[in-house]
Fold this protein.
Amino acid sequence: MIKATVYVTIKQSVLDPQGNAVQGALHSMGFQEVGQVRVGKYMELTLNTTDRREAETRLKEMCEKLLANTVIEDYRFELEGL
Amino acid sequence: MIKATVYVTIKQSVLDPQGNAVQGALHSMGFQEVGQVRVGKYMELTLNTTDRREAETRLKEMCEKLLANTVIEDYRFELEGL
């Protein structure tokens, strides 16, 4: 079994309204030191396979097809044997 | 300036409907090897401070008060000097 961790982030060139909202909220709560905030997604998946290379290929496909919107988002992932 | 990365995940004992939806979608797309899926949040913040210890205390406060719902979510963060 392989544990995969996927990070999906909004591309630097794309506006992040959610990040801006979080930044505004933190400022209004007195956290003036907060600069840029970017919000992304973090996913943990278990894959019922032991073939690391196959897992990598398949996970890339999952990211491209469903997990990330590659027009506005970047993704990266880590694999870890269990 | 300090770069903080915050990971917010749903506690293991709490149901994750979004994770289940992603799992179902992946299965229906032919990714049968996918087991459990948990979806969390990933945030990158820049903090205009150089005091690492202070940044840690303040970030903990931000997580407890706004970034994570500690009733159902866990959080962890990493700090990195820029």
